[in-house]
Amino acid sequence: QVQLVESGGGLVQPGGSLRLSCAASGSIFRVDVMGWYRQAPGKQRELVATITRDSSTTYADSVKGRFTISRDNTKNTVYLQMNSLNPEDTAVYYCNFNTYLGQAYWGQGTQVTVSS
User: Fold this and answer.
1) pLDDT per position in the chain (116 positions), as tens?
2) Which residues of 58-97 are buried (b: 16+ CB within 10 A; e: fewer)?
3) Are 93 and 36 in contact (CB under 8 A)?
4) Strand 57-59, strand 67-72: pairing
5) Among candidates 6, 106, 12, which has minimal Cα distance to 66?
6) How many Å apart are CA 57 and CA 55, to the nearest integer?
7) Distance of alpha carbon 92 from alpha carbon 90, whole angstroms
8) How far apart, in whole angstroms, are the C-alpha atoms of residue 78 and residue 114?
9) DSSP H or E segment with residue 101
């Protein structure tokens, strides 16, 4: 049974930083794309960033220059460094792993709240 366990969310003031982590537990096949998504209250889930196994990255326009996605393939872990946070970044953040077999896994979500 594969589970994605997220950590690092919390409350931060505008302009602050947080680092999210997501690690896979259990036996998981080789992971191709890892990603972070977020869902704010009353809104649809949206893509934040993705990273391929060879570290090619994509970002939503709203986070470019502020967020950085990275991964450790030896630990089946993905990270999201979030800087210059603003209230519009408030959401539940979910990690997503897609394997070379076409399997998709989601984390349980971690709350990020940006408020003074």
Assistant:
1) 899 999 999 999 999 999 999 999 988 889 999 999 999 999 999 999 999 999 999 999 999 999 999 999 999 999 999 999 999 999 999 999 999 999 999 999 999 999 99
2) ebeeebeeebbbebeeeebbbbbebeebeeebbbbbbbbb
3) yes
4) unpaired
5) 12
6) 6
7) 7
8) 22
9) none
